[in-house]
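Model: You mentioned two targets. I'll fold them one after the other.
Researcher: Yes, keep them separate.
Model: Target one:
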Amino acid sequence: MSTNKDTAGKEDNEVSVCANCGKGEEESDKLKACTACKMVKYCNRECQIAHRPQHKKKCRKRAAELHDIELFKQPPQLGDCPICFLRLPALETGRRYKTCCGKVICCGCIRAPVYDDQGNEVDNEKCPFCRTPTPDIEEMTELERKRVEAGDPTAIYNLGCDYRLGERGFIKDYAKALELYHRAAELGYAGAYTNIGYAYDYGQGVEVDKKKAKHYYELAAMKGDLMARYNLGVDDLAGNINRAIKHFMIAIRGGDTDSLDTIKKMYTQGYATKDDYMKALQAYQVYLGEIKSEQRDKAAAFDEEYRYYESGV
């Protein structure tokens, strides 16, 4: 097959001709773009294979560029507390998942006092969102089972953790844990991708595969998981400082103090600039401004288990 001289060298998705044979849509079936780079089109699989030798270098380069565009986008945040409507803290002690209603509620609203009809403060023994009484262990297990059956990604993820760690009466089963993590990930739970990556990183229920581990860490990071984003930054420290800093900055905007501490160390050791460190500090201050409240401060002062940000950062 000969390449059309008018389109030779033009690898532009706007050119509606086959990159190999030069046929346009009027001469062939509907053209399909290269799924990796999106730069060229082909009328069929045979043309794509024939054109591969001269296209593969540019294809790989553009595919890598497109991948990085997606990878370094600012990912979605955790969302807001459904009661006070403030941004949820990144620190796990700053929020609670309620099995009764499937809501994630901030520490301030969890700890906020409840009043009876006469205005007297009473013990908070009910979910602050759905007002379900606090369940005992057996009731909690049954609630979790119902949430899993209903397709709640957080409940499915938590059950996966029970199997991975062999906790709360569950026998350790890596294969079952991975099955549940995949279900939770498909339903949008970012941390599930991180745990799948961890399984491939350390051979928990699967053969060790560093390439697959990185793939799942990247999926988790793009969906907003801070641990995965931090791990990617650490991996890049040995070979690409600028890339590592980009990862850390994204994580800091999400509230990750490990990334902030790492940029601070890089600055003191000469691997990051003063401007890098100042931008990191400013990003973290913006995050604090979005999560701080008097009610959350009172909860944190009442008990360390309600701490919602790292002090002294």
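Model: Target two:
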Amino acid sequence: MSTHVLSGPDPTAPADLRFYPLRDSATMLRRNLKRMLRYPSMTLMLVGMPVVFLLLFVYVFGGTLGTGLGGSAHTGAAAGRAAYANYVAPAIILMTVTATVQGTAISVAMDMTEGIIARFRTMHIARVCVLTGHVLGSVIQAVFSLAIVIGVALLVGFRPTAGLGGWLSAAGFLVLVTFALVWLCVALGQVSHSVETASNLPMALVLLPFLSSGFVPTGSMPAGLRWFAEYQPFTPVIETLRSLLTDKPIGNNAWIALVWCAVIALSGYLWSRRLFNREFAR
């Protein structure tokens, strides 16, 4: 295969033989969307886990934990459950994102291990479009999953007080968080040598919300665990989302969360690009 196909568009080549990154990326996006439609069980499985956790924490633990958030034991389990639904919903919403990007790692690993990259290598396409298709497809899948989980949260008692501006800010913030975590999982999918490994590597992203302020205030934790919970990336993300949805002051959490997102997105992108260029150039 000629060198210019791997390194970039040749300005001397005929117009119909040059790269069209946007067109090729749109083609790869359609490929990933068709895969999601062909295998809806994957999306349902990724959405199912946050929904199960939501129902578990609200209906099983919510009465007791909600009372412990500052309410009175005399208000009853129903009031405690309602208070806890408002508290835990942002954490479950974030877990929806982490579950979705876990599916991204699996999809990328399937491409890397099933020989499709070798076929792409023989085609006259922009190299960037393969990963771009995965990223955009995963963001769309996450938006769809978030809509379902937020709808379930509203049904079980989540009562956000944000106005239109707060909802739009929360939506944009969630897309940014998803974009950052998707790039990280694209890299994890590439570094995996099997689909099974790719399904396990992002598990830390699923577990970290439990070690944050998502389910209980960090002040109730032992000293060492409290320090970790307060300084890990998901705590400012959850606190920012919680403040946006409840129309409360955000404080320093927003810019800390944005810095974490920028670091994760840039690191994941650079790592993904290096791995993919090495694989594509073989």
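Researcher: Noted. Anything on target two?
Model: The radius of gyration is 21 Å.
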